[in-house]
Write a structure and sequence with these properties.
- The chain is α+β, with helices and mostly antiparallel strands.
- The chain contains 15 helices and 45 strands.
- The two termini are about 45 Å apart.
Length: about 775
Amino acid sequence: MSICVRSLMLCILGVIGLTSVAVAADVLAPHEASIKGLVRGIKVLPDKAADCSSLKSIVDSVTRGCQTNDEKAIAIYNFMRLTHYHRAYPSEPGGIPVLKEINCYGWSLCGGLHAEQSALWRELGWNWRFVGWPGHTTVEAFYDGRWHYLDVFLKFYAWMPDPNHPSGRTIAGEDDLASNPQELLLDSFVTDPSRKVMYAKGNEFAMFGTRANWQAPAFLVCGDDLPGIVEALRHKNRVGPEPGWGGMQHATGSYSADVNLAPGFALTSTWDKAEGAWYWADSKVAPCHTCGNKEIRNSPEKGPIAEPYLGPGWDCESYANGQLAFQPDLSNPDALQSFVAAENVKITDGALAPIDPAKPGRISVLLKSPYIMTQASGSADGLELFEVSIDGGKSWNAADMKDFGSLVGGQVEALIRLTIKDRLRNLSVRATVQNNPFALPYLSPGKNTIAVSVNDSAALGQNKLVVTYAYRTGSRRKSYEQLFLEGKEIARGHDASWDEQPTVVEKIFSAKDLPAKFEIDITTPKGQYPVYPRMLFVRREVLSPNQQSLPLPEGASQPKVAPNDELLTLPNPFLTGIASPSPKVVRPTRVVTIELNLGHFVAKSGQVPAGDHLRWPKNNNEQVESIAFLIPGELKNLPPLKDLAAARLIFPATRAHEKAPTKMGVTALRSPLVANHPFDFNQLGNVVGTVIVPKLSDDAAAWSPPKEFKVDVTAQIRSIILGETKFHGFSLRVVPDRGIDDGWTVRIQLPKQPRILLEVETYEN
């Protein structure tokens, strides 16, 4: 098998037409020096979130608490998993600095994602090298004297023994995996068939004693497979330590993720998208992760933070928006300090007016943030002419102030110029920006300490800095242990809810207050379990002394702490997977066998089957009668859910197909059956467990006594215990699977009156 076709085609299509060229210089930076009231380097950072203001700050913040280089590599892998999904490359003329992609986009293909990963490795002083596979670009990091492979596109890495490492293991490199694929790959991972992901053997999402091992990293969550990796490693080709890939540039160049605001400006970053407000050069479709929520629902490094957004209206991981707004206080003479330039302009009676009435006045405003503009509009009373420049004022284009988004789309900065003939009042400008939602400074359950700082607090003068967080708190009614026992994913919003009413925290700072810290407590009702809040926005505003901050969401309230609320926390997502798994606790069990009622053979046609064989056509066109065996019975005295260790259906067989093994399946009937009567095959239900029956040559004796086969039906029995499923009976049927039966129309022979048992294993304590 090969790497998943979806992944391969995405990689191939994404690199077409991409080249690595230098990033253009910032032509507008000199204009910031002309803004006398500009407050630079406004940073609002919760203590548990990543600091995405620079590549170094990302690495420093996500590797806090890491003791080894393997742990640092995993923390960076987890950061990339949280902040990105795979989709065709974003592109810009001249390429995209990695820091800009992280803040503005949040999606790319294999080469781009691994260019970003290696840019973060570079901040640790590590070397890196790109390695090509058929249709896929990987990257390795060099530390501790060897190469290590972590793939944020496939969502995969593997451990190998290392007697020289304090933990006795290290992350394997591609040469290691290629030279020993059986031990390090095929024998070291197990598939969770219900969740359709892989886990490292011994570190699965399972019960370890009385605790659920819910932080077990899930691998290959978007459908790729280990045989594909094994095959691809046979054809790998080293490329080298390129300073970027697929248009993603390690060098930050002139891009800056700093938030710089003059009085009257506000930058609101949200976790929601505005319809149509996306930028993706040359794309006719909006960015969207076409794998749905696969990489969220089972992934402990990403899922808990992302699951609050999986509610109504969510269709795919995509983009998010914010707004850069400018509304100067024209009653304040110092409002002129917010402009790049003010030619022949004064402030009088709450308006801008020409100093010399015989000549027009002009003001220039710099629109700049770390985020790409996608839409823009504004209004002003008394405007004579409105112009836009995206080349630092070298050229100007007249525009309609009500909608000039087409001129600034794809830019992180632009100049606007307003010409005044008489008086200009009520100036307001709004630019919608595109931001990566999971690179924003989110809040976490428990106590959050938010640090607020600026480069130079004196630049604030008599003005004020306002910081506002808006979010919706939530909780989960069931533990991760209960989620496991009920067969649910860890991060799909199961048994969780979030308040409809927003909670808002607004803090006002003067120059003498900075730097500052404040706390936001995200509490959990007693008896419930913590979840991440559903973030709405974080806002930074620089306001003149008499200006009011922007309106708060309708119905918003201050945080309220009930008497029984608790400050419960969740583990640091960036450190997911760094620790060796705890050894599984072996709990003593006992087995009880339940004999089910005598069943009967049925044919899809309704005719009474002539023999005692089970068979099923490979496809709808094959002229083979479908025959199944129905199993009635009552399931009495089932154990409590917490005591159930396993449940297995046992059936006997006397003969198997002579050419190939057969996959046998157990289904849960959707409706009751009547003994020795035909049955509607549409009511056979889904397959809830399978087992492989080996082939038996023609000249071999039949199995006598009949050979028993056991099918794990634990998940179905759990569902019955929970009352989620009503038991109507089981059926036995053949499940065609070319990977097992090589395309043969296989069959199984049962005894004429097979004895079917349900084996229930329970914990003794």
